[in-house]
């Protein structure tokens, strides 16, 4: 039995306007010749991937682009991106986007060096060697996928999301340039911001939390409480956007090392079943999972700590939960699972899959199936 724990983050992280140009210089300085850019159609449409390609090409670097990553990336996205990588003999990968682009890029980079199928790596640390170096350019302040050892890929046959938690997918460089986020629409700002808040809270109540992850989680909550609604109301608020970059990164530091809980375990299933936005699923589920988690005395106390950092009306677990519901209303989050089109007849299957998701293992209470169904029912009826 050992009490040793690790703390994992990228070797280098860049923050601030101009971070993309700095990352491109580092790619050249490291001697890489052939870049694969992995992104999605939305990023391609607004021209950001073209801008990054131009920056790299002006430095003498060859660029290939795979821009067909879908919102919940699947095995086909991984295979198609890997084909482009091999055709162009890419020696480094650059991802541009939110969680989906980074997750797909991580999977591509991992399979490029380890071989096989991404299905082979579901679970914790199943690979043998590092993936190709990944420079992850973040465009949303939420997922923290640009800096974590998590990648989530949809298995469309089983209608589930596979959680690959592997030190070898940790990006080499995480890039947060708030200039890429100034034009984000309010709905996406709210959903991704709630994703970051969920990371902070789930990591703080996690059974694997530590003083280091606690510090990251609580500071992240502070910044989100101060900045998310401002960024929602005014997408060009530079300070709010910059603070949300730091907040989501802090949340990533927290959950990358303390892991998560049943909010994510269930949100992954909702995404796999219904192709729903991950951040929205987290936002709807977060208060209801914590309602059940507060049955554990230690977690009830920790949620009271969360109430302090959320600046709730009272310093109790119940007040923290009510503040989360209040924030959801202010940010126009759907009220319940019913509004998202979730079906009650799917609850049993959703619960069964959630209990197999790697994220459930560090929830403060290891719920029985009937309790997981009860969480879904509460989130459906609210």
UniProtKB/TrEMBL annotation:
It comes from Lachancea quebecensis. GO terms for biological process: fermentation. Belongs to the iron-containing alcohol dehydrogenase family. Gene3D superfamilies: 3.40.50.1970, Dehydroquinate synthase-like - alpha domain. Its EC number is 1.1.1.1. It is an enzyme of class 1 (oxidoreductase). The keyword Lipid biosynthesis does not apply. Keywords: NAD, Oxidoreductase. The lineage of its organism: Eukaryota, Fungi, Dikarya, Ascomycota, Saccharomycotina. GO terms for molecular function: alcohol dehydrogenase (NAD+) activity; metal ion binding. Its cofactor is Fe(2+). Residues 10-178 form the Alcohol dehydrogenase iron-type/glycerol dehydrogenase GldA domain. This is Alcohol dehydrogenase 4. Residues 189-380 form the Fe-containing alcohol dehydrogenase-like C-terminal domain.
